[in-house]
């Protein structure tokens, strides 16, 4: 079971959530660090100015390099950043990149019960139904991208529960861990898209990784190796996952289209001596919808721990 202690303090990537920069704020401003030095240097004011410009550029480059280093996985795209944070939150016996100490018994020593596993499946179904409902009726347009990805699980879970019923088992009502998480997701999806996307990623991707390992282990122990629908996907899983990774990266990153529009705007202003307000408006709208600021990305990454906590509570039902 994953632990919920905070991520290493040596990682300065979790800053407090900030509001988006107001429109029109310059991207980088380098104020003169020491105005008094301007006229007193050898070589006169222009040489001083040149030196200072070089210093500012060197500083800015160093700062940019440092910023790059601060976000592991950044070069490969935002999903890689989310993955990096998630992997560290595993315990060492769960995944080799895990950094947490194990709290309960390792999975190999789990003693699951059918009743506990049913509680886990019922609560998981509620969580997946909630996610699928959220993207079906999106509070933010970005969510609509994640309809019909092929990763949806609620229908397959419904089939599995039907199978258990046919075997004579009573299907329980959803319990507190599932209800709490489903309510949290619903609320988050309406007010905090970056945090919501973090849960979306972790829930679907955890299930295809550790979730499948768990399903196999439990099936060996209590289901005579029966493979549930929950662990089957239509077609190859890997392209489905890659498709969702690409969409997640597109939601979080500035897209080429945006750069193209900005270039076109500049060309129009210079060559045609015409500034089309609606064109600028379109660019700004795209900018708003398609890219997250560093603060928003960090806010999303920060939410990973909560995702592990909520999902961990549901996983623990298997042993209840
Ligand atoms: C007993 C519990 C768990 C086990 C045994 C487990 C195990 C694993 C393993 C073996 C991987 C693959 C590592 C790799 O690619 O080399 C993985 C990936 C991952 N896990 Fe877990 N995990 C568990 C719980 C969780 C939980 C609670 C979450 C979050 C809700 C989570 C989120 C993820 C994510 C996001 C990945 C990356 C998947 C990818 O890159 O495709 N895991 N896990």
From TrEMBL:
<keyword id="KW-0479">Metal-binding</keyword>
<dbReference type="GO" id="GO:0009507">
    <property type="term" value="C:chloroplast"/>
</dbReference>
<dbReference type="Pfam" id="PF01126">
    <property type="entry name" value="Heme_oxygenase"/>
</dbReference>
<protein>
    <recommendedName>
        <fullName>heme oxygenase (biliverdin-producing)</fullName>
        <ecNumber>1.14.14.18</ecNumber>
    </recommendedName>
</protein>
<dbReference type="InterPro" id="IPR016951">
    <property type="entry name" value="Haem_Oase_decyc_pln"/>
</dbReference>
<dbReference type="InterPro" id="IPR016084">
    <property type="entry name" value="Haem_Oase-like_multi-hlx"/>
</dbReference>
<keyword id="KW-0472">Membrane</keyword>
<keyword id="KW-0408">Iron</keyword>
<dbReference type="GO" id="GO:0004392">
    <property type="term" value="F:heme oxygenase (decyclizing) activity"/>
</dbReference>
<keyword id="KW-0812">Transmembrane</keyword>
<dbReference type="GO" id="GO:0010024">
    <property type="term" value="P:phytochromobilin biosynthetic process"/>
</dbReference>
<comment type="similarity">
    <text>Belongs to the heme oxygenase family.</text>
</comment>
<dbReference type="GO" id="GO:0015979">
    <property type="term" value="P:photosynthesis"/>
</dbReference>
<dbReference type="InterPro" id="IPR002051">
    <property type="entry name" value="Haem_Oase"/>
</dbReference>
<keyword id="KW-0934">Plastid</keyword>
<keyword id="KW-0809">Transit peptide</keyword>
<feature type="transmembrane region" description="Helical">
    <location>
        <begin position="254"/>
        <end position="282"/>
    </location>
</feature>
<keyword id="KW-0349">Heme</keyword>
<keyword id="KW-1133">Transmembrane helix</keyword>
<feature type="compositionally biased region" description="Polar residues">
    <location>
        <begin position="1"/>
        <end position="17"/>
    </location>
</feature>
<keyword id="KW-0560">Oxidoreductase</keyword>
<keyword id="KW-0602">Photosynthesis</keyword>
<dbReference type="GO" id="GO:0046872">
    <property type="term" value="F:metal ion binding"/>
</dbReference>
<feature type="region of interest" description="Disordered">
    <location>
        <begin position="1"/>
        <end position="47"/>
    </location>
</feature>
<dbReference type="GO" id="GO:0006788">
    <property type="term" value="P:heme oxidation"/>
</dbReference>
<keyword id="KW-0150">Chloroplast</keyword>
<dbReference type="InterPro" id="IPR016053">
    <property type="entry name" value="Haem_Oase-like"/>
</dbReference>
